[in-house]
Design brief:
Layout (H helix, E strand, L loop, with lengths): L2 H15 L2 H8 L3 E6 L2 E6 L2 H10 L1 H12 L5 E6 L52 H12 L8 E5 L5 H12 L6 E5 H14 L2 H9 L3 E5 L8 H16 L3 E6 L11 H7 L3 E5 L4 H15 L5 H10 L4 H18 L5 H18 L3 H12 L3 H5 L5 H16 L5 H7 L5 H17 L1 H15 L4
Parallel strand pairs: 2-3, 4-7, 4-8, 5-6, 6-7
Antiparallel strand pairs: 1-2
The structure holds adenosine-5'-diphosphate and magnesium ion.
Amino acid sequence: MDNNQIWQAVLGEMELTLSKANFITWFKQTFISSFENDQIVIGVPNIFTKTWIERKYHKEILNSLENIVNTKIKQIFYKIEINKTEQLSEVFNKPTTQIAPDYNNTQQPITTNRFGLNSRYIFNNFIIGKGNELACAACHAVAANPGVAYNPLLIHGGVGLGKTHLLQAIGNLAIKTTTKVLYATSETFANDYINTVRGGQAKDFKDRYRNVDLLLIDDVQFMGGKDGTQEAFFHTFNDLHNNNKQIVITSDRNIKSIPALEKRLASRLSSGMTVDITLPDIETRIAILEKKCHEKNYSLSSDILNYIASHIQDSIRDLEGALNRIVVIHEFNNTLPTKESVEEILNDLLIAQKTKSITAKNIIEITARFYDISIKDLIGKRRQRELVVPRQIVMFLMREEGNISYPSIGQEIGGRDHTTAIHSYNKISELLKNSKKLKNEIESIKQLLYSVNV
Ligand code: ADP
Ligand code: MG
């Protein structure tokens, strides 16, 4: 049996003991991420599911697994990870009369139309406030007059602040007047490019990306280090631009600080209009919460809204996630939210957020400081052992603590391949089994990482 089959069998058993709604809520998007020797890592979509499964279903999962594989399992880890390669398990495709609560709709697979657009993201439900008003105005202008106002338009801003929402809103408005609209993440663009090159269908690729009036490319930072893709995008860009076709791009960081992004492409991307989305102020955060409550037909007192908005400041996605969590937990328990119950739910979330704020940059800086080597050496190409091990530790920590994908790790560490990141992760995991010294070192780095004032 492969991992997928094993997990299907476990799910089959779990399904028998749970209500359909519970089963779907907690086990959709779970999968076996790795199964080596007697250790198993189960991928779960978010911290909420992780906590819940650990608390409530761990024993059953363990029993069921041991039954199915017919060996003792020493440890089960639950790790937040999105399963990109596998289709959703078959068990979830069966028709169901009971619909699971949508406990965190930002994590659900998104349905899109042939333009790559999701009708949920429109200007009408986008709250304008300090931090996004300029970006929103520019997007409006571009949607109303593609190819005329600002070309390209580059939307720049931190994670979870509404870049994808605005980019998609442009598309959703524009398809009212033209059908030649295409939204793609830079990852989709890269995959399409690779596939067509492999299959020798360069023409299809060209048709797809150049026969448009409006091209929307999300998360361009992921093109860093992908030379072929960048080249293809550069030509696509020039072709569209020369023909006055509108291009809109988003990036979660300054174009200049995307590692391994070609200069000529970087300069083309910044050649039009750049708008920043910055953190929303408290009034905007409250307005967003009110709007989302209204959409859900749920009501929260202004006290509680205020409390949530003042505690979650960095990301609208997190704000939405917190609200979803509050709604679902109370609906699930059939209780009304109080200041105390909301406080408790947020506390869990804030702890999770602290974990989340571990960034690649942090890990690199702190590891460099810990081993007293320069960042340049740490992520550079030199192969001395004093550099190689810390470098591998950085990659290990990025995966373990930062939940960063292997390709992104490779990219952060001087544009290396994802296989290098995987190898480093395995290598350190292996060394950790026997080296007390290494274990202590990594513990110390982690302590530095998690202490606030370093
Ligand atoms: P990004 O692409 O910048 O990471 P998203 O566009 O995915 O962020 O936004 C995260 C979530 O927050 C989405 O569900 C989005 O609809 C919501 N959101 C972001 N900004 C706003 C806003 N100003 N008004 C309403 N919802 C918003
Ligand atoms: Mg986005």
